[in-house]
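Data availability (excerpt). The following record was deposited with the supplementary files.
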Amino acid sequence: MEKFSILNNYFFTILIHVNEQIDDKYIKEFICSNLQLKNISYKHKYIYYSYVEQLNSYQVFVFEKNDFVLLFLDNINSDGLYTLLFYDSYLILLKNKKLYYFLNLKYKLSENEIIQLIKNKLNIEISTIMNLDNKSFEKLIGKSQKNKYNIIDFSSNNYLYAFMLNCIFCMIFLSNYYFYTQNKTKDSAKNKVLLTKEKKDLKTKKLIDILNNSFTYNLKFKNLIIKENKIDLLVTSNKVVNIENFSKKIGAKVNFLEHNKQSNKYEAKLFIQENR
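Predicted structure:
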């Protein structure tokens, strides 16, 4: 994974495709899960994220230290919705003066070619590009507000321990071939996943798709069993339509769907049969 540096502030980025924008209350779980899937260490670090609507994707920035110089650009003199900065080999697109999209150019382009590149990628019309050198970049940052918008702090161990309850589902993606039984704990534990010790014969790509769509449609997992070429799911949601859309998206069939009066949630048993 390539590492970038702006004024000695080191970071790297990943782009995560989604079907639609994730609800704010699930965004931490979503980002945490995807970082785990890619074996990216996020402990004691700070994460910035931007939803790039034109790509149906989240661009996630992992900073090695708490500097965030790339984010403090709100002092820029621009009245447009989008502002494009060109610094070193980096394209930095701002939306409402906040970091929106980052791209590292591998080759030299003229200003007109850069404008066309952004138009092709994002279907955005950019009228001008601001070229910045080290001095002008430092000056811009020095006069900007240090607002920590869209930043997730993973520096606290206490937060991480509590957060792992909501990320337990991600553990099924850490092994490509074997899954082990997860013992039951208290009924109040959220997002508990019960696994059987059976040989995995489903593609990891399918499991990642299930995980990402669970966040998209705000679902909770009560049970998940994988054996041979079949996967069974027991999910809950506040809305029937979320379960229906989720099952269609991942190609699952619904065994039963009912309303739990005690929890006031809908429960559904789903299964996916993989063709060999």
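Summary of structural features: Residues 157-202 have pLDDT under 50 and may be disordered.
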